[in-house]
Amino acid sequence: MANHLIHRDPQHLLGRLDPFSDMEEFMHDFFAPALRLREGASSRMRVDIAETEQAYQVQADIPGVNKDDIHVSIDGNRVSISAELKDERVTRDGGGKIVRSEREYGQQYRSFMLPHEVDEAGAQARYQNGVLLLDLPKKEGKGGRQLAIQ
Question: Which intervals hold domain SHSP (predicted)?
Fold first, then answer.
């Protein structure tokens, strides 16, 4: 949402009678929590996928999540990553009085298809510094078959 400066003279008669003078601020404050959730959900888990001849390397950014709350499942060439977010931030003033407390709970989920099936037995996962690293070896196979045109 663009920020616009609107100059109002509270001493002016029309400025005091305008029923919509604070509508933009009201709407922004009303919808801000939903917009933050939507933005957070869509941008929370970013995934990079690299491919070599033998495997896929997946890097998923999942900050603020405990590794025990991350689940990875592989079904053929479909990889699914889910994580449960439990983020609590508390700000206290010098005397111990809570000034602000914010909590964010929810599920993050990403699923994607790879061009080749994954060898589940050889797959490995590591989580460090908010980044999930997956090593997904390709399943051995004969590959595609060329058809002779008659």
Answer: 38-150
Q: Let me know: does 117 contact 76? Beta carbons within 8 Å.
A: yes
Token pair for 27: 């709407």
Q: What does the pLDDT look like over 25-42, one tens digit per residue? A: 566 556 655 555 544 444
Least confident of 19-23, 36-40, 117-121: 36-40
Strand partners, 85: 106
- Which tokens is 62 given? 């999942």
Phi and psi, residue 134, nearest 5°: -115, 130
**Dist. CA 112–CA 60, nearest whole Å:** 12
Range 56-77 average pLDDT: 91
| Pairing of β 98-113 and β 78-92 | antiparallel
Instruction: Please state whether the predicted TM-score (pTM) of the whole model is above 0.85.
Output: no
Give the integer Cα–Cα distance in Å for 139 and 25.
56
Catalogue all structural domains in the chain, each as residue range(s) with its CATH number: 44-92+104-137 (2.60.40.790)
What is the distance between the alpha carbons of residues 47 and 60, in angstroms, rounded to a whole number? 4
